[in-house]
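Team,

Forwarding the record for the chain on the shared tracking sheet. I've put the sequence and predicted structure together so nobody has to dig through attachments.
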Amino acid sequence: MWNRFILLNVIALTFSFLALAYEPSPLQDFCVADPSSSVTCKNPMQVQAADFFFSGLHLRGNTSNQLGSKVTPVFATQLPGLNTLGISMVRIDYAPWGLNPPHTHPRATEILTVLEGTLQVGFVTSNPDNRFITKVLQKGDVFVFPVGLVHFQRNVGNGNAVVIAALSSQNPGAITIANAVFGANPSIPWDILARAFQVDKSVVDQLQAKF
């Protein structure tokens, strides 16, 4: 009987830790972020409709950059009413053949829908399989990227492309692989990168110089 009691407690604690690994459920109707403090909510009696409102996702993002893409975020920073609700969204614009490069969201699953254009999307599963799962999406298609996995989107059409994506965190975070590896500050020692990628120092130097 005692062993069964211990087992049930271990199971309960396990599920408790799993639940705490993600954003907890709010304990009140809302907790609008207070711009004057990083830890407190706005007084609920002072909250206005503007705290739950954002305008601008109808505007095309500027894709005149090396990657040919632009992410317009709607996180708690832009929409204070999202604070503690565990959700956010982005608009992503792509020039013809524009790329949202391989990256991860350490705190969120992402689901996107194509509003315009044709996109190749894909993600890579974790070690040791490292399976590359990819698909070409058309207008109206939906695709999901599991939390933490490296993924990308590329416009494979001759016109512009647009998606709207939702993320399961008010602050999903983004780690762009190339920036993190070759643009770290301070730099990752060249010999570590050379050995990891099986390349010469000159190649590492060239890549670090770009980032």
